[in-house]
């Protein structure tokens, strides 16, 4: 890549960051109050035994369906309780039919990709859930109890805003559990159960009677979280600029030479791998389809390896099966220390794959030991914010891969 070409790409990266910063600020300033009130209504549903039912048909929507479900079922922040959630995606058949056999009246239905589903199946499923008595949440201008519509000029930016929003819903719904008297159908206890959340939310000691005060505190907390990811996104894309540009050049070179992208991660990072692969196979911007394989996709393979050999080998064995010289391995990890990630990166290097890693905290072992050729570090210990900034990083990487041209 020429110096002039690198300068053009660097300017484009700056433009992409600036657009995200402004969209993040405007979206959450507009939606923070509704978001806080939605958290309250969600808490009432969960308190009555309801579940979160996530819906999505497209491959990209499926990644959000899986992501929100795993965040609610398997909380990654100390002090947050597990909440029941289930994801319904296209592999299960018609979405409306799945809703009929899964959804119940006290559930919360949240739908992704309505505006990217020309079949209308996702909207039909959401409407079916509403007819059953579910509370409904949508990210498109449709009839639902709660709609949060991000700017739609860049589908990647819109998806990133939605991810932050559903992470914040998950984080802040817990606040209302500590104010039992504010939940319809549930009596206040004689004392507050502040639990491990108290150091984060000092307003938990307030009275049970002032819903508006709690809503306002939750609203302000949502704005703080949005500002936090904005700053973290800037750190990731600015500090990681050279790594992203170099990774894009190497990725384009390998793809043009017939190579493939292999993506993998654990938990929420597994859903990011799903999203990354969907973006390369069928980008919503209409870019050329690129060869990509999601190593998190097949539960039979993953559970067989984990059961018979060990969880540390679940991606390494697949790199052996699928990886060839000329391919690219992309690892996503919030810690940079997961053994299955480290084993897979080592195997990829042995097989002459280019290795790219998006990692959180201080980069962990992956960064400290130089276990990948290109490492982009998101410097935070807060897992939802790490994942949100990493989504921006791999979306930018996807666009730069198309812009960089052959190396």
Per the principal axes of the C-alpha atoms, what is the gross shape?
globular
Written as H for each helix and E for each strand, in order along the chain, the element string is HEHEHEHEEHHHEHEHHEHEHEH
What's the CATH first level of the largest domain?
Answer: Alpha Beta
Number of strands: 10
Mean pLDDT: 92
Helix-residue proportion: 40-55%
For the sheet with most strands, the description reads: 5 strands, parallel
Q: How many H/I helices?
A: 13
Strand content: 5-15%
Rg from alpha-carbon coordinates: 21 Å
How far apart the termini lie comes to: 6 Å
In total, the number of domains comes to: 2
Structural class of the secondary structure composition? alpha/beta
Detail the poorly predicted runs: 187-207
The CATH architecture of the largest domain would be 3-Layer(aba) Sandwich
Strands across the major sheet, in which order?
2-1-3-4-5
The named CATH superfamily of the largest domain: Glucose-6-phosphate isomerase like protein, domain 1
